[in-house]
Amino acid sequence: MILIDVHCHLDQKEYTDLDKVIENAKKAGVKKVVTSIANPKNKEKSFEIKKKYDVVELMLGLHPTHVKELTDKEIEEYLNFIRKNKSKIIGIGEIGLDYHWIKDEKENERCKLVFEKLLRLAKELDLPVLIHSWDAEEDCINILEKYNLKVILHCFSGNMELIFRVKDKYYFTVPASIVKSKHFRKLVKWVDLSHLLTETDSPYLSPYEGKLNEPAFVSESVRKIAEEKKMTQEEVANNIWLNYQNIFS
């Protein structure tokens, strides 16, 4: 059974033994682990991780909560860095908006401008985008619909109306924490399997109490999708693999 973790953060300090994390992932059947840059300061570390482990792919992004840490000049320099390293990455992410942690209106307006710059860059480079949209789902969708891009909505917590609005054109990730989430079990019922991908967001959102999340646990996403879709886990995993190939081809 081929498993895929389309979104995690291997650069985070919580991982004190990355060799073991990758070994666990391989033993679980994970063939691709996509690590996403949230903070540009970690970009060099992430390139080293990608170089060391054959199963790892890389996305370069800018989490909205880190936008305020950068000047306009630094953001432009980072965009140029992404351009120069296009051949080493498979997407732009994670990027988006966050009204949960960012309450200042001016700060959110700047985040929107930066978000659109990153979307235009993805268009220029012909790369998929992975979207963070905590408590900002509708604004993210409104902005995304201005661009013709391959879109992955990471841990999308929007309401049913928003999900149905884009369920046939965007992809939705199903985190391993679906085991504890009624929302994601409903999302799996509403969205066709052809528009689902699996992720962990590790080291965060662990499906197991008291355990650090890791890519190996993406098996829980497949298990719950199979349960909700009344399919075998192998059928689900094979379809997710095809979705991965389609979006990153």
Write the layout of secondary structure elements.
Elements: E1 3-8, H1 18-28, E2 30-36, H2 43-52, E3 56-60, H3 64-67, H4 72-84, E4 91-98, H5 105-125, E5 129-134, H6 137-144, E6 151-153, H7 160-166, E7 171-175, H8 182-190, E8 196-199, H9 219-229, H10 233-248
Helix pairs in contact: 9-10
Account of the 3D structure:
With 249 residues, the chain is α/β, with parallel strands linked by helices. The protein has one domain: Alpha-Beta Barrel (TIM Barrel), CATH 3.20.20. 44% of the residues lie in helices and 18% in strands. It has ten helices and eight strands. The protein has an eight-stranded parallel beta sheet with strand order 1-2-3-4-5-6-7-8, sandwiched between helices. Strand 2, helix 2 (43-52) and strand 3 form a beta-alpha-beta unit. Helix 9 packs across helix 10. It starts with a strand and ends with a helix. The mean pLDDT is 97.
Oligomer class = single chain
The count of domains is: 1
Radius of gyration: 17 Å
CATH homolog superfamily: Metal-dependent hydrolases
Low-confidence stretches: none
**In terms of structural class, how would the helical and strand content be classed?**
alpha/beta
The name CATH uses for the topology is: TIM Barrel
Strand order of the largest sheet: 1-2-3-4-5-6-7-8
Number of helices: 10
CATH architecture: Alpha-Beta Barrel
- Percentage of β-strand residues: 15-25%
Largest sheet: 8 strands, parallel
- Ends apart, CA distance between termini: 21 Å
Taking all residues together, what is the mean pLDDT?
97
